[in-house]
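Supplementary Methods, section 5.1.

A reviewer requested that the exact input to the structure prediction be made available. We therefore reproduce it here, unchanged from the version used in the analyses.
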Amino acid sequence: MKRIPGARAVRERESDIQRAIRDYLRLMGWFVWHNLQSLGSYRGLADLTAVKDGTVLFIEVKTSRGRLTQHQERFKDHLTRAGGHYVVARSIDDVEEAIKQLEEAER
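The structure derived from this sequence is encoded token-by-token as follows.
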């Protein structure tokens, strides 16, 4: 790959992916909010929560190289064992696929 002199590498940012996912879901009619990790929060809580027609989806946003922490893995495991829906999303495509699978499971 040839590098252009003076050009900066574009760095993938989790916040940009998160914003795109949030905006997409809102356009599709989902009620979406960002979860802030703070004192008293469940450690590893997913970045976003989305709700539509009684379906609740927890979304952990990662860059293409990002990995779940031990606390995030634990949250995912506890949530899914309790019957919750969870997706690690690196793009809008990951969220679309998770929603498609949820819809197919409800049929």
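The longest helix spans residues 92-106. These observations are discussed further in the main text.
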